[in-house]
Amino acid sequence: xxxxxxxxxxxxxxxxxxxxxxxxxxxxxxxxxxxxxxxxxxxxxxxxxxxxxxxxxxxxxxxxxxxxxxxxxxxxxxxxxxxxxxxxxxxxxxxxxxxxxxxx
Length: 104
Fold this sequence. Notes:
The protein is mostly helical. The protein has helices at 2-15, 26-32, 35-39, 59-71, 79-86, 91-103. Helix 4 (59-71) packs across helix 5. The protein is globular and about 25 Å long. The N and C termini lie far apart (45 Å). The model is unreliable at 1-23 (pLDDT under 50).
């Protein structure tokens, strides 16, 4: 039974269902965490003009902004909506998203 559990865990890890995100996951995370719904699939065509274009943003800056929204340190503009979204995203996933955004 222990062997089956270990094999199942290894299979999930290999498929990316468990474990920390990496920069390679940034595009998938951006989509799956709902970022594209407002900021556009390419991170450059937001659905409303007041939403920022994120493509090409400095990775550290983007990460810091998301962290500040998550912690409540930044609470202006549309951050009330963003706070609910980023609350459930790990710092590792935020970093992966930020790195993907910077590469766009």
